[in-house]
Design a protein that fits this description.
The complex is a heterodimer of chains A (118) and B (113). With 118 residues, chain A is an all-beta fold. Helix content of chain A is 0%, strand content 51%. The termini of chain A are far apart. With 113 residues, chain B is mostly beta strands. In chain B, the strands form two sheets. In chain B, strands 2, 4, 5, 6, 9, 10 and 11 form a seven-stranded mixed beta sheet that branches. In chain B, strands 1-3-8-7 form a four-stranded antiparallel beta sheet, with no helix packed on it. In chain B, strand 9 and strand 10 form a beta hairpin. Classes of the chains: A mainly beta (118), B mainly beta (113). At the A-B interface, strand 5, strand 6, strand 10 and strand 11 of A face strand 5, strand 9 and strand 10 of B.
């Protein structure tokens, strides 16, 4: 079974600074997807960024980027120029594509609470 | 607004009540999901429906009963719940391609008293 581990229950960052959230996962599959979701106090899960395992290039979305290390099974999220609106719970998630399954389920990590200080 | 709407947003029910959570998606997706989010636990997948057919049931107690009448609607029927079932229940939807994003609703807060 796949597992996702976020070893940092809480992180904090000063506004305009950079912070990195860690995520490791365990899988025997080679074809899968990784995601970072953000859950603000409203509780809605919002996709931040996604990475296809077969792509070596790290995904970026504006101030958000990932460091994907497939061999190490590591998938960290870097937030640059942090803003107050970035404060939220961040979840790392895994979704496999084994056997051409026509749907995919997400396996989530425990989450990291990010606090942004003005 | 992500195109996935859940009602009610908050629900308080007694252990002998019967209630339902409703989810509607306006994204043209054909897979829908129920997740449970409890305090201090990772999100847990409860049910998956693909093309209105249940394809996964992760050992969820029978007091939770899902229903998917069409590809746009998903229900979670609740009866004789326990206090430990109090949690945030998140509905989500996606297209059939596993690489596509799963979109979540805002969740329904359930308190069992």
């Amino acid at each position: 079974a796949q597992t996702v581990t976020q070893s940092q229950p809480e992180m904090s960052v000063q506004e305009a600074e950079t912070v990195t959230l860690s995520c490791t996962y365990d899988t025997s599959e080679s074809d899968y997807y990784l995601f970072w979701y953000k859950q603000p106090p409203s509780r809605q899960m919002i996709l931040v960024i996604r990475q296809e395992a077969y792509k070596q290039q790290n995904a970026t979305e504006n101030r958000f980027s990932v460091n994907f290390q497939k061999a190490a099974k590591s998938f960290s999220l870097k937030i640059s120029d942090s803003q107050l609106g970035d404060a939220a719970m961040y979840f790392c998630a895994y979704r496999n594509n084994a056997g051409g399954t026509s749907y995919g389920k997400l396996t989530f990590g425990q989450g990291t609470i990010l606090t942004v200080h003005p | 607004e992500t195109g996935v709407t859940q009602t009610p947003r908050h629900l308080v029910m007694g252990m002998t009540n019967k209630k339902s959570l409703k989810c509607e998606q306006h994204l043209g997706h054909n897979a829908m999901y129920w997740y449970k989010q409890s305090a201090k636990k990772p999100l847990e997948l409860m049910f998956v429906y693909s093309l209105e057919e249940r394809v996964e049931n992760n050992s969820v107690p029978s007091r939770f009963s899902p229903e998917c009448p069409n590809s746009s609607h998903l229900f979670l029927h609740l009866h004789t719940l326990q206090p430990e079932d109090s949690a945030l229940y998140l509905c989500a939807s996606s297209s059939m391609n596993p690489g596509n994003t799963i979109y979540f609703g805002e969740g329904s807060w359930l308190t069992v008293v």
